[in-house]
Amino acid sequence: MRSVRLAALLAAVVALPLTSVAAQADPPPAPVFQGGEAQPVFSPTDVVRDNLWVDAPVDSDFDGQDDKVHVEVVRPKATLQGMKVPVVYQASPYYAGGNDIANHNVDVELYAPGQNRPAAGPRVAASAVGPNAALITWRYEQYFVSRGFAVVYGESLGSGQSTGCPTTGDVNETIGARSVVDWLNGRASASDPAGAPVTASWSTGKTGMMGVSYNGTLPNAVASTGVQGLETIVPIAAISSWYDYYRNDGATVAAGGFQGEDADVLAEYVYTRSDRAICRPVIDKLAVDQDRVTGDYSPFWDVRNYRDDVSKVHASVLAVHGLNDWNVKTSQVAEWYELLKAHGVEHKIWLHQAGHADPYSLRRDVWLSTLNKWMSHYLYGLDNGIQLEPKSTVQREDLSWVDEAEWPAPGTADATVYPWPGGKAKGTLDLRNPLPGRPTIERLADDSSKKIEQLADLASSGNRLSYSTTAAKKPVRLSGTAKVDLSISFDRPAANITGVLLDRAPDGTSHVITRGWTDPQNRTDPAVTKAIEPGKSYNVEVELMPKDYILATGHKLEFLLASSDHDYTLRPKPGAGLAIDLTKTSITLPIVGGKTGLRAAF
Questions:
Q1: Total-model pTM
Q2: Does 179 qualify as catalytic in the annotation?
Q3: For the chain, percent of residues with pLDDT exceeding 90
Q4: Three-state SS for 579?
Q5: pLDDT tens for residues 370-406?
Q6: What does each C-alpha distance from 144 to 4, 74, 76, 214, 235 come to in angstroms?
Q7: Could you give the CA distance from residue 149 to residue 142 in angstroms, rounded to a whole number?
């Protein structure tokens, strides 16, 4: 009886149309989503790995051939069964490590028009450079692969197994990184180690770029080209303008912890391709064109300014930055974020209390949930509402997390305070009135051997000027960018200017909230050096690095003015004199609650 039924069943199957048989075939595997997040349903270790080179339409080493970008792909085995997946892509110059390099000497005199250029002096040995010299296994690989994403690694031009030359943020570097997105979308060719063509037939083409520091800067760069297929980027501790990484308003300013590094030094560090000679002329040209002498903004820096091309950005942006990052400073994310908002780019910002770091180790559960929802929405098209959540997540000083509608915080407005005299000791900051009457001059003499933190804790010093509020009666929040307007003169034709905001605790200890620098020769334009006439007064503005900071009850807010900043600026011999007119000097603060909120606190 069973055999008769089986025969009848087989006959019925044979009689079915071919389309019906095909319809009953097992569908390819698919990702699983729960709570708006992709779930870990694929093996993170039993994966497919592809090794290939993508052709980039640029010849940065001038060998007459297009450069090749070395790429490694890690994808779920389900892609062998017809499943198509989106990509999380990290481009980096660091996969092959770095070279021993020497930084520029910063104990040099400052340039003044009409004078001989200062001697550069001997270079200083350095074992590592910024933005991020650490080479670690990417902690996100297994996380994403197990959830149905492919992870793609691309070596920057001139590094590792890629050809071409490193040029620290130049257009060719962007083209190299972009070519991988083109390959994932069928617009660029690639080959395997045997030279056979390779396509990304397993990919949906939808790509998200992500990384920390230099690896986060490349997503900004590629997004600024408007390349199709790049749906989102997650730049963490990332640069948006290389000029502002190595300069500040005409001043040569270091990345925190890497005094003397510059574009040529970083290129030298990541130049790890096997041909050690072919890029030598390219890097030597970087050393000249970057211009450490005048510090002026120039075409060299303009092509490395991704803010100029923000109008081309269509990829959504989840921008992440440490509020205490003095390597890639907060101006990099703040200015980029403001432009993204102004151009209608879908955006969100995460600001945390660490320095130059990934938030993974700070609040892993919340961070990974946000990241998962972000990638699931923009790469898989999941309608999980992440784009409707508050745009700003800020970690407070007590390490709690606060979601807000936007950043800077809603309700923030400028509040201006005015320094009153204190001489070598400490003056006051008046919350209402500028110093009246005739010009009141206070003076300081530069001493680049002393750190700002040392100067801040001296009861009296001729090397800085200092002004303080009374103790706060309730917390005061700064959210955004503070600036200082100085009426200032100099006794020499060249000098640094450094402005600092400090938090003075009840026990007398101090903490730097933020700082900023300028070259007064660039007082009208970062691209133009204008001579300083000793003894003549000039109006000079100093923008401090953007910040989100709560001054606690009982603490005082202080402003400190110095000339050189030992840890950041060039360090000329001591002695340059600066004099400010207090009647024409003010500090403008971004206060939540504005003038009313500030005055109510003191």
A1: 0.93
A2: no
A3: 90
A4: strand
A5: 999 999 999 999 999 999 999 999 999 999 999 999 9
A6: 51, 10, 10, 21, 17
A7: 10
Q: Which of 264, 325, 358, 519 is catalytic?
A: 325
Asked if the model's pLDDT at residue 308 lies above 50, the reply is yes
Residue 245 has pLDDT above 90, yes or no: yes
Secondary structure (DSSP) of 37-105: EE---S-SSSEEEEEEEEEES--TT-SSS-EEEEEEEEEEGGGGGT--EEEEEEEES-TT----EEEPP
Residue 356 is a catalytic residue: yes
Rounded Cα distance, 326 and 13, in Å: 70
Q: What is the mean pLDDT of the chain?
A: 93
566 is catalytic: no
Residue showing tokens 């151009």: 343
* pLDDT tens string 107-155: 999 999 987 767 676 666 664 544 443 334 589 999 999 999 999 999 9
Q: CB of 220 within 8 A of CB of 235? A: yes
Alpha-carbon dihedral 465, 469, 470, 476, rounded to 10 degrees: -140
Among 104, 321, 347, 356, the one annotated catalytic: 356
48 pLDDT exceeds 70?
Answer: yes
Q: How far apart are CA 103 and CA 106, in angstroms?
A: 9
Across 182-213, b (16+ Cβ under 10 Å) vs e yields bbbbeebebeeeeeeebebebbbbbbbbbbbb
Beta carbons of 216 and 237 less than 8 angstroms apart? yes
Q: Are the beta carbons of 402 and 393 closer than 8 angstroms?
A: yes
List, for residues 162-200, the tens digit of each pLDDT value.
999 999 999 999 999 999 999 999 999 999 999 999 999
Residues 6+ apart with CB under 8 A from 69: 53, 54, 56, 154, 155, 156, 157, 162, 164, 176, 177, 179, 180
Q: Find the catalytic residue in 159, 162, 203, 213.
A: 213
